[in-house]
Amino acid sequence: MSVPLRSPSSFFTPVIAGVAYFLMASIALLCSRFEGGLAFIWAANALLMAELQTSETRYWPRVIAACGIASMISTALFGMGPAAALPMAAVNIAESLIVAILCRRFIPVHLADGSKRSLLVFILALCLPANMITGLGAAMVASALTPVKFSAAWLQWYSGHVLGGLTCTPILTMLLQGQVSRWIEQTTGKKKLEAVGLLMVFALITVHVFFLARYPMLFLLLLPLVVIAFRVGSLGAAASVVLLAIIGGAATVTGHGPLNMVQGSIGERTQLFQLFLAFSFVLSMPLAAELNGRRRLFQMLQASEARYRAIAEHSGDVVLNVSVDGVIEYASPSAAEQIGCAPGLLVGRPAEILVDPEDRPEVIRAHRRALAQPGDVQTVEFRPLLSTDGADWCEMVTRAMLDEQGLPIGVVSTVRDMSRHKARQRALQRVAAVDTLTGADSRWAFLEKLEQEIQRVARGSHACLLLIDIDHFKSVNDRFGHGAGDKVLSGFVERLRPGLRGGDSIGRLGGEEFAVLLTGTDIQRATMVCERLRNMVSAQRISADGVQTIAVTFSAGLVELDGKAGRAELLEAADKALYRAKNSGRNCLRLAA
Fold it and tell me: Where does the PAS domain start and stop, copy by copy (predicted)?
């Protein structure tokens, strides 16, 4: 879920942010400068981080200036004095900028989306470059102006700023992006009461653990933390961590709670509390992020399931859910109409029972391809074994269904009647296979037959190819017109057909050029057939317009198929023989060399 960036235009918005930063910084300096150097607890930078992460970059200079001034004033008044004001403000701003820039760079959506990725990027940016680098600058200032050693100052900065950022940045980000107000508006009263009740119980348990318990019972806090993360989500987890920080931090600083049973200075006990707080954060926030992701996924699955059911139950196509081993797990209501079988009777039976036995291997292969290639859609045509409406062809579109790990758990298939499509396809093929003028095979249909015959000859059969060209056909068009020429072409084919056998084919290759495929015939018999055809054509004139008749002869080239030469080679050989026939005076046959 993408969250829009804020673009505050009011003059008072950065001023309010600066005042809030000053108050948070001043309280931290007054309450946690136990050794006279840096504050052990620091949450002010969390406010600046939240402001930068949730707003457009053109707003950054104003809020940085406001928080920088607030940092200098609080440091000068309650911290290490005026000399440290400017360098500490620069270090504080640098920490917030590093976190904001890295989060903007590596998070496609913003922190409040509650995803594991955004939370991980934020934690890494805060704990590694931001505070490791800026801690060096802060430690140099502190070691130069106070008695605190460099290493101790760096540890104070790192622990205080990391824990302050982890504790407060998520909840402040949610507040600034309106997540809290949206939760209040969109959540039911029952859920609100549950959330408030859980947080109150958690607060009471925390008070008991840190102020009343006689024994160290920090483990009591783990269960309610998990319950709040589970029931309320990221907002509840962030709120519980803030409650723990406020109550536990106040108790530890004032000398109460289980951590004060540990020997050491108050600063050391504060750092130990911060370590516990970090573990609490790492326990609750990632858990809430994981649950948020699962909740969104569940909602998406519910919506997808609703759409799927609506489509499946009102579609004329049959929708099937088929397991990995090919068993039907769901059949849509249209199965009763299309297949003639109630959907409930199909469940638990192999899907192959719907398919004609001859087509089952191809359907099974499509099922296996869908499982092996989950991202691809497999389409297969088959003849149904049963059909109530006379469907003779169906199309099945199949795609794999995946589990959480991306492994296939079955397929969803849509089966539709494509008999009309097949009938239209066959009709178009028939039309395309016939020359509309002469009734002979079209060029591509004849060449397909020639290709099939070449394969049969390779298996031991005999066949010959006869290439024919009508003699002086151009003069027919010139003298009598194209209409007469068309009648000559159609009449020519009619003259040839009686001389052909059932297995022979005649095709028009183009213009006045024809080809005859003589099957089961060697070159000698084919020569006799050609001569017979030539005599049949020349013996009877063709009527052009009912009165005018035209004498027609043809030249021909003959080649015998050997099963080795391809289609192009055979046509070229026959064409060369035809060329020799034309040069020999026409109205004759020549054999290919």
Answer: 304-374
**Cβ-proximal residues to 251 (8 Å cutoff; 6+ apart), any chain:** 210, 211, 257
Buried b (16+ CB within 10 A) or exposed e, 374-404: eeeebebebbbeebeeebebbbbbbbbbeee
Burial annotation 336-351 (CB, 10 A radius, 16+ → b, else e): bebbebebeebeeebb
| 8-177: CATH, from 1.10.260, 1.10.3470, 1.10.1760, 3.40.50 | 1.10.1760
Question: 106: closest CA among 97, 93, 96, 119?
Answer: 119
Q: Are strands 328-331 and 408-417 parallel, antiparallel or unpaired?
A: unpaired
Strand ordering across the sheet containing 378-382: 328-331, 318-323, 408-417, 394-402, 378-382
Question: How do strand 589-591 and strand 554-560 relate by DSSP bridges?
Answer: parallel
Contact 131/95 with Cβ under 8 angstroms? yes
- Among 108-112, 212-216, 270-274, the range scoring the smallest mean pLDDT is 108-112
Output the six-digit token pair for 514. 């024809």
Question: 158, 135 in Cβ contact below 8 A?
Answer: yes
Does the pTM of the predicted model rise above 0.85?
Answer: no
Strand pairing category for 549-550 and 542-543:
antiparallel
**Across the strands, what pairs with 131?**
none
pLDDT value, residue 313: 67
CA 167 to chain centre: 36
Does residue 265 have a pLDDT over 70?
yes
**What distance in Å separates the CA atoms of residue 486 and residue 545, rounded to the nearest whole number?**
11
If you write DSSP's letter for every residue of 161-220 in order, what string do you get?
HHHHHHHHHHHHHHHHTTHHHHHHHHS-HHHHHHHHHHHHHHHHHHHIIIII-SS--GGG
- What is the CATH T-level fold of the domain 316-421, as seen in this structure? Beta-Lactamase (3.30.450)
To 10 degrees, what angle do helices 266-314 and 222-232 make? 30
Query: What does the alpha-carbon distance between residue 286 and residue 157 come to, in Å, rounded to a whole number?
Result: 25
Find all residues with CB under 8 Å of 345, minimum gap 6, and list them. none
Reply yes or no on domain 434-591 having CATH 3.30.70.270. yes
The string of DSSP codes covering 488-534 is: HHHHHHHHHGGGS-TT-EEEEEETTEEEEEEET--HHHHHHHHHHHH
Using the predicted structure, report yes or no on whether residue 201 has a pLDDT greater than 90: yes
Q: Which two tokens stand for residue 222?
A: 């783990």
Cβ neighbors of 488 (< 8 A, separation 6 or more) are 470, 473, 476, 542, 544, 550, 552
Residue 273 · residue 249 · CB < 8 Å: yes
Q: What is the tens place of the pLDDT at every residue in 142-199?
A: 999 999 999 999 999 999 999 889 888 988 988 898 888 888 998 999 999 999 999 9
DSSP-derived letter for residue 1 is -
Q: Specify which of 290-304, 312-326, 484-498 reaches the highest per-range mean pLDDT.
A: 484-498
Contact (Cβ atoms closer than 8 angstroms) between residue 67 and residue 21: yes
Q: Which residues make up the CATH 3.30.450.20 domain(s) of the chain?
A: 316-421
Every domain of the chain with CATH number 1.10.1760 lies at 8-177
CA pair distance 468, 574, nearest whole angstrom: 9
User: Tell me, what DSSP letter sits at residue 286?
Assistant: H
What stretch(es) of the chain map to CATH 3.30.70.270? 434-591
